[in-house]
Amino acid sequence: MSALTPALFAEFGIWFVVFLFSSTLHEAGHALLARLGGDDTAYRGGQVTLNPLPHIQREPFGMILVPIMSFFFMGWMMGWASTPYDPLWAQRHPRRQAMMSAAGPIANLMIAAAAFIALAMLLARGVFVAPAPDNLTFSSLAAPAARYAAGSMLHPLAAILSVALSLNLLLFVFNLLPLPPLDGSGILHGLFPDSAGRLIDRLSANPMVSLLGLVLAWQIFPPLFWPAFRLVLEMLHPGIYGG
């Protein structure tokens, strides 16, 4: 666990705000696509919104406690939320279920893409530069050029964009794994309801499967995430971090 310093708490604040925004947009994406597809369960629960409070109220452990603990013990933030839906609707409309499941990861990809474009533009203009290798972290994918004072607002902006890119890339890749209870399993279920869907239904009937799925996903995730992360670094800083 890192030493509790003012700089660490400032970094925590950035991570937490970005996490709340990213998770809220993820769940609102699920809820909106479900409503557009004919299931208003989440809409009636107030989850078609960018207000994080309805999502926090539904999953306070995953939206508050786990993100705080993961940051102070791992140096980056992880957590979860959930969106209710009608399983009978999903059975009747499997393709719509697949679209609903995909909406959350797509929301994370959109945030990551926006952060990447902003970072790339600021790097191209010389406002930001590549950080020294020892300073490269999820929170510092770019740094203001030396001509900017330490108190410049460009420093928190660099951190916000770095965290938005890192966290949302992480959430995008992780949630696409086709294991219950992750979104990838919902996509697979909706696309192949008569084969993979039936297997997922049988597995999900056991409450322990979700826990086992998360444990297994955590083992599978790193070999998939790091190549994607290195590719993003190479695109941001050609020839510097791609090796």
Tell me the number of helical segments per DSSP (H or I, 4 or more residues long): 10
Tell me the helix content. 55-70%
C-alpha Rg (nearest Å): 19 Å
Query: How would you name the oligomeric state of the polypeptide chains in this document?
Result: single chain
Main β sheet profile: 2 strands, antiparallel
Beta-strand content bin: under 5%
**Order of strands, widest sheet:** 1-2
What is the H-and-E element order? Answer: HHHHHHEEHHHH
Distance between the termini: 29 Å
C-alpha geometry? elongated
Count of distinct structural domains: 1
Low-confidence parts: none
Category from helices, strands and their pairing: mainly alpha
In short:
With 243 residues, this protein is mostly helical.
Describe what this molecule looks like in 3D:
With 243 residues, the protein is mostly helical. It has helices at residues 6-36, 41-44, 53-58, 60-74, 87-92, 94-124, 154-175, 183-191, 196-204, 207-236, and strands at residues 128-129, 143-144. The protein has one domain. α6 (94-124) runs antiparallel to α7, α6 crosses α8 and α8 (183-191) crosses α9.
